[in-house]
Structures
1.
Amino acid sequence: MTPSIQPTTAEKMDIVFVGHVDHGKSTVIGRMLADTGSLPEGKLEQVQLSCERNSKPFEYAYLIDALKDERAQSITIDSARVFFQSLKRHYIIIDAPGHIEFIKNMVTGASRAEAAVLVIDAHEGIQENSRRHGYLLWMLGIKQIVVAVNKMDLVDYDQDVFDTIETEYNSFLAEIGVEPLCTIPVSGREGDNVASLSERMPWYQGHTVLSALDSFTKARPLDDKPMRLPVQDVYKFTLFGDDRRIVAGTLSSGKLKSGDEIIFYPSGKRSTIKTLEEYGAPAPEEARAGEAVGFTMEEQIYVRRGQVACLASEPAPQISQRFRASLFWLGKHPMLPKKQYLLKLGTERVKAEIETIHAVIDASDLSNKEKQVIEHHDVAEVTFLLKREMAFDTTNGIPDTSRFVVVDDYEIWGGGIVLEAIGDAEQTILRDEVFLRNKKWIKSHISYDDRADRYNQHSALIIVTGKKGSGRKTLAGKIEKQLFDDGKFVYYLGVGSVLYGVNADLKRDGRNNWHEHLRRIGEIANIFLDAGLILILTAIELTQDDLKVIQTIISSNQIETAWVGDTVTTDINYDILIPDEQRFDEATISIKRLLQEHGIIFSP
C-alpha cells in the first residue's frame, strides 16, 4: 500500500467512471482509494469485518456503498460521487451506473465531467454498452478518455487478450474522432496497475489508473471565449426608493465589467453595463466565466429570460429557428417527427419539432438505420424547427450554449449538441437590417420599464388571422374595446389600413411585394410596442413564413397569434384557436386570459 497522499495544490477536476454493468468500475475506484490511503481511518477494516460477519466475500466495491453514508469525514459521497485527492489535484470521481436501463443517470453524472475512465471487463470483452458509453461521452464533449481493461486476473494476465480489446476499442473510438490517452491492463480486485505498476504484467510499463488521472489536462477556463450570459431573470427593487432593475445570470464564458457595451440575442437590442451587482456583497469589478452576477444598464430595454447577453465587440452567437443537431433519445416512447417537444438550451425554453431525420445511428456499432422515428437508446442526426428564433453556439464553441435537452411529458428524455445553424438568406438580410436599426435607434428618454409601470401592462402585438369572412375584424374590435374599457393602452390596426396608406406605393406597383409589406407592418408594430402599447393586427391567412418576418423585427415573446375558425388553412403556429361555435364575447375573454397568463396584462 502506498503512503497517504497529501495534495500540494487546490486544482480540482471531475472524472467520470463509466462502463458496462459488472465490469468493475466501483471495484477499481474502491481499490484506488484503499491503495492510496485515501479512506477514512478504520473504514477498510470496518467493511472487511462487516463482510466477515455476514459470511460474504469482501469486495472493494463495497467501500463505495459504505462511503455513501459518510457525511462528517473528509471523503464525502453524495450518491455516486467520491472526493479523492492525489499529489497533483483534488478529484470528484463520479461512479456512473452501468446498466443499460440507467444510461440516463450515466449521462447526468457525466455531463459536468472533464475526463472519463471507461472500464471494460477483460474476460467478458467489449459489450454493446461499452461502445454506447464511448459515443455518449463524445456527444457530451468529453474527449479525454482512459480505457481500463479490468479483471486481467481472470484471463491470467494474458497480453494477447488485452491487445485484442485495445485494438478493437481504439478502432471504434477513432471512428468518432476520439483518441484515448492510454489503455491500461488492470485488476481492481488484486490492485494491479491501479496505484502502482504490477509485477504480474511485466509486458506493460505505461500509466497506472492513478497516474493517468494526473495526466489529464485541466480544461482551460472559458474566460478567453466570447462572453455569453444567458439571462436567468430580471429583478426590480422598490424598497426605500431603490428603482434598480437587475438582469441576472451566470457567465457561461468570457468576462464582463461596467462600461461594456452588450447586445442581447436574438433581439439584437443593445445597452451599456452601468454597474455589476452581487447579492449581499460589494459590487465586483469584473465577472468571469462560471460566476453568477447581476448588472444594471445605462439604457433600460426590454429583456427577458432566455436571451443571451454578449459583448458588442465580440463574435455573435448563431441565430436561427432551425439547426442541425446530434441527438440521443432515452424516452419511453419513440421520438416522432412533427411532434412538439420542449427544447431547453441555456436558460431558453422553446417548443420544437423534428423537421427531418437525416440518420439514425446505432451507438453500439455506429451503423446507420433506415428509420422514420428515433427509438429508446437511438442516436440520430436531425434538423430541429423551433417555434421562434433562438441564440446558440455550435459544438465547437461554448458548452452551455451549444448543448440542449429535450423534454417530453414534463421529463427530460433526450439531449444533444448543435452542429450547425440552418439559415435563411432573406431572413439573415432582414435580421442584419434590424440589428442596424437597433444600433441607430434614437432612444426615448422614457424607458420601456417606466412605460410598463405607468401603463400597468407590457407592450405586445396580437395578431388575429384566419380565413376571409371568419370575423377577424369583428373579434379584433371587441378585444380592443374590452382592453380599453379595462384601462389598457391599446390600438387596432387592420392590414388594409397599412396597404392603402404607408404601403400605397407597393400596392400601386402591382408586383409581388408581400415580404416588403410584412417588413413595413413589422416596423410599424415595433414603434407601437416601443411606445408601450398593445397593438392588435388583423390579416387574412398568415403563414408561418409570414409570421417569421414579423418575429425577426419584433421579439417573438411579444407576439400572440390567434386563428379564427375551425379550419386552419395555413401552417402558422398559433397561440390560441377560436372555434366557429365560440361567441366573440367568450373569445375575447379567452384572449384576455392568454395575455394574463403570459404576463402582458395583470390579473386583478
2.
Amino acid sequence: MANTSMDVISSLCKRRGFIYHSSEIYGGINGFWDYGPFGCEMKRNIKNAWWEFTVRTREDVVGLDATIIMHPSIWKASGHLSTFSDPMCTCRSCKKLMRADQVADIFTDGECGKSLAEVVKDGVDAAKVAGWCKGKAKGIAKTLAAVADADKLTAAFNAMKADPAKYADLYALYTLLAAPETEGYRACPYCGGELTEPRPFNLMFKTVVGPVDDPDNVAYLRPETAQAIFAEFTNILNSSRVSVPFGIAQMGKSFRNEVTPRNYTFRSREFEQMELEFFIKPDEAVELVCGHVVTMKDNPDLSTPAKDWGWEVWHKYWVEQRKAWIHRCGLPAASFTEYWQKPDELAHYARACVDIEYQFPFGLQELEGIAARSDYDLTQHQIHSGQSMEVFDADVKAAAAALDDAAKAAFTEKVVADWTARGKDPEKAKKFLASLFEGRYIPHVIEPSAGVDRMMLALLCNAYEEQKLTDNKGKDDSRVVMHFSPVVAPVKVGVFPIVKNKPDVYEKAREIYKDLRKRVSAFWDESGQIGRRYRRQDEIGTPWCITVDFQTLEDGTFTVRDRDTMQQTRMTLPEFKAMMEEALLM
C-alpha cells in the first residue's frame, strides 16, 4: 500500500486488464491510456458513485451533458485562449519538449537521476561522484560533459571539492556535470544538453469544424467541463425550476496537450472530469434577506445547508462533502489532506481554494480542488456574449424594498467599504447594489472539481497489498490483494461451482450467477482449484466469492468468502443479497 511503486501498480493494471498504454502495438502514444475490462468497470463505478452522491441524492443539483467542442468564443471569455499555458523548454541537442517547471522532477524520476541519487545519498563526495562518472554513468549518461571529457570532469571535481553544499540539490549537481564551466546553464534531464528559455505553450488541442481548413473554422477540444455549465446557466435556470442556491453537475472527457505527460495516468492528455458548479447568493443578498451572514467564525453546523450561510460556509460545506465522498469510495481519511491555498497562490478572482491531496508513490499531489470562484465566470460570459447572467430573486427585492432611506444608505456605505478593502472598484460596488436593490444579481459559485482518472489511480495505489500467508498445512503462501471498497470494485462477486462435472451443482451455480448479474457485475470461474480462483479474484479486488457445493442442493446455502478476512460463511441467496446491498449503499 503505502510503499507500493508505480511500476508494481502499472504492471498489475496491465496484467489484470485495468489499464493499457494506448496504441501499444504501434509503440504507444504518450499521455493516452485505454481502460480494459476491469478498468472501465471501475471507472464507471467511480462516476456512478459521484453522480449518485452529488446529483441523485440531492434536491438542489441537476445535471448537464454538454458537447466536447463548443464555440471558440467561450474559451476567449474564460481566459483559456490567452492564459491557459505552461512554460515549455526544448533541448537544443535531443530536441525533446518538456515543461520548464518539471525539469528537475523529470531528471529525479529517470534512471540517471535515481543512479546519481544513490551515489550522493550520504552527501556530495567529489571522489564518489567522479567514480560514478568514470563507471556506471558511461552506460546511462554518456552525453554528460563530465562523463565524456576528462578535463570537464576535473573542473566538476574541483567545483564539488570547493563547495559541496552548493551541489546538495540533485539537479544542481547534474547541471554541474553537464556543463562544469558554464554559469546559468539549464540541463536537459534526458541528455544533459542545453535547454532553451521557457516560452508559453497553450494546452488546448486545436481542431477544425467543417470541411474547409480555414482559420475561421478553428475550434478547440474542451480543456475542462466547467465552462459549458456557465454557458448553459440561463437555459438550465429557465427550464428546470431551480433557484439559487443550486448546482449543475457534469462528467465527461477533457483534453489538455500536456507538454510532459507523466506519472502514469496522473497527468494525461485525455482524461475525465467530474465537476460541480454550485451557485449561491452573494453575501450582500444574504444579508439583505436574513439581516446577517453566517461565517465560519460562527461555528455553524455543516450537516444541513441554511439560507443565511455566506460564501465561506458554503465553501467549507463542499470541502466536507467532497472528503465524505472520497472516504466512502475507499480512501482512508488519514490518507488524504487539505491544502488551503495561500492568498498569493489564489487566482485573482478566487476567494479561497482547497486542494485535497493524496500521497501517491510519486509524491503528495492534488486529487481534486474546491474553489470559491466568486461571480467571475458568469460575469465574463455576460461581458463577452452580451447575454445577461443575472437572476431575479423576489426575496431580495422585497427585503430591499423594506429598507428606509437611512438603512439603505448605511447598507450601501458598508458594502462599498467592504469592496474597497478587498481592492475592488467602489463604483462597481454601487452599480452592483443598484441591481441588487431591484432583486437582481449574478450568483457566486463554489466549484468542486475532481478527476476520474486521478481518483482511480489513488484507489489503485491505496488498495494494493502483498500479503505473506501460511496455509492450513503450515506452508508459506502469499497473495496480491486489492482492497477496493465494494462501491468501486469492478467485480462485486465471483461465483464458482465446487466442481464442474456434476450437472446439478453446476446448474445451481449458473442459476445463482445469472440472478446476481441482473443487479451487479459478477464473475464466473469454473476452472482450477478453488484456492487459485480466490487468488485471481483477490488481484482484481472482488469483495466476495461464492462457492456452490453439494450442501447448496440440500439447504440452499453456499459458502461466501470475504476478500479481506478470507473467512467463509454459509448464506442463502436472499441473505447474501441483503448483505451486499447494504455494503453498496452510497
